[in-house]
Design goal:
heterodimer, A: Lipocalin, 2 domains, 1 helix, 8 strands, elongated, B: 2 domains, 5-stranded antiparallel β-sheet, 5-stranded mixed β-sheet, 12 strands
Chain lengths: 169, 250
């Protein structure tokens, strides 16, 4: 075999290898947990003063952008007064293994007429209240379409996609 | 004249061997006596031998030997080539085997014995081709196998990543059953802290009876995930995530 033929073969072998690697990585990235998923989860946060019940919706649109919306009711433990709380947070994100780094660019209330009064500062992370905040979240798949969101070693949301399992039950 | 004739050699009167592939006349009794013919002369002889029981017209010679190959010659050139052929045959010891039939053409003399045999070169080439075809097949097969192996190596990361994608669930262990609640705890957390939090919250497990509790190792916080089915259920599960801040360690 002359040198040209050998070089050609080696080049072609390397080409096949690289192409298969690219295919593999591409499909792996498609299967990544945060790539184009929309999931919902019910959350209840209890402190000594308040109880907060909300529905969180996470939308990872792919290409590193997404939005999270939460909509709930904050109730005082003392006088049982309650008010609605709802926010929409636009963010960009970057994956690093099971963790994603989320950076919010805009936080707007989805309930413009909501009365002020209670502060959510003590139990809702700053990411959900103020813009330009980076948030590190661990995301773990728990079942087909179910993702556990973990913040500072503590799960805070079981987020489920529409198509997880049989909806007939 | 077909190219298929090249696979034959002709034995003329058991004296002379004519090899059209090499354009050679060889005297059989002497290995050293070889006459090389020029190509048109050789083609004329070949045409005569392939049709040794027929008369070949002048126009057939013109067409088969020259015109078919894009060459046009004069009558003089034709006779000159026939003359050269006769001389060569004479030199090899065969006189007057190329006969002129007036107004018809040329033929091989009727008394001439013409025997056609498969050329040794043809046999050799054929066997070489068979061997090289087998070789080629084996080589191609090996190449395909190598490409396949490389492809499999290449897609290995996909399988590994998919494996981890499916298997990175935090491990909750079943702790105990209390008040119809199946309580699970995350391996690293303190069970007494978990049970304290569970008792404190007075959870209602009538609907969501699978409870997954984890406590923060340093902060005064616990997380409780209450579901109607186990995490690993293939059916749709209904869950509520409760975070209790403070009031656990006191």
């Amino acid at each position: 075999m002359n040198n040209n033929a050998l070089s050609y073969k080696l080049f072609f072998l390397a080409f096949v290898f690289i192409i298969s690697l690219c295919i593999s990585l591409y499909y792996s990235s498609l299967n990544a947990i945060s790539n184009k998923i929309t999931c919902w989860g019910k959350v209840e946060t209890i402190t000594s003063q308040f109880r907060f019940n909300a529905l969180f919706t996470y939308v990872f649109k792919g290409k590193g952008v997404g939005v999270v919306v939460y909509d709930g009711v904050l109730t005082s433990n003392d006088d049982k007064k309650s008010r609605k709380v709802g926010m929409k947070i636009l963010f960009s994100y970057k994956e690093a293994g099971n963790n994603i780094f989320i950076f919010n660019s805009n936080v707007v209330s989805i309930l413009p007429g909501a009365e002020e009064g209670f502060t959510t500062k003590n139990f809702i992370p700053e990411f959900y209240r103020n813009k330009n905040v980076t948030y590190n979240v661990g995301i773990y798949k728990v079942n087909e379409g179910g993702y556990l969101f973990v913040d500072a070693q503590l799960p805070f949301l079981l987020c489920q996609t529409k198509n997880n399992g049989d909806s007939s039950n | 004249m077909s190219d298929g004739s090249k696979k034959y050699i002709f034995i003329i009167d058991d004296i002379l061997e004519y090899n059209p592939q090499r354009n050679e006349l060889k005297v059989l009794m002497s290995d050293l006596d070889i006459i090389t013919l020029n190509v048109p002369v050789s083609r004329c002889l070949e045409l005569l031998l392939l049709n040794h029981d027929k008369i070949i017209s002048q126009s057939d010679f013109f067409y088969d030997v020259w015109e078919k190959n894009g060459t046009y010659i004069t009558l003089g050139t034709f006779y000159q080539n026939i003359s050269l052929l006769r001389k060569a045959l004479n030199h090899a010891g065969l006189d007057d085997i190329v006969v002129t039939v007036p107004r018809k053409g040329l033929s091989i003399a009727k008394k001439t014995k013409v025997e056609k045999k498969i050329s040794p070169e043809y046999i050799q080439n054929t066997s070489v081709n068979v061997v090289s075809k087998n070789d080629g097949f084996i080589r191609r097969f090996k190449t395909i196998i190598i490409y396949f192996i490389l492809f499999m190596i290449g897609i290995t990361p996909l399988s590994i990543m998919n494996y981890f994608d499916e298997h990175y669930v935090p491990i909750y262990n079943f702790l105990l059953e209390r008040n119809s609640c199946n309580i699970h705890s995350l391996g690293v957390t303190d069970d007494s802290k978990i049970l304290r939090a569970f008792d404190d919250l007075k959870l209602n497990c009538s609907k969501l009876n699978y409870v997954y509790i984890s406590a923060h190792p340093y902060l005064n916080e616990v997380s409780i995930i209450q579901c109607d089915r186990p995490f690993n259920s293939t059916s749709k599960i209904d869950c509520l995530t409760i975070t209790k801040v403070g009031g656990i360690d006191e």
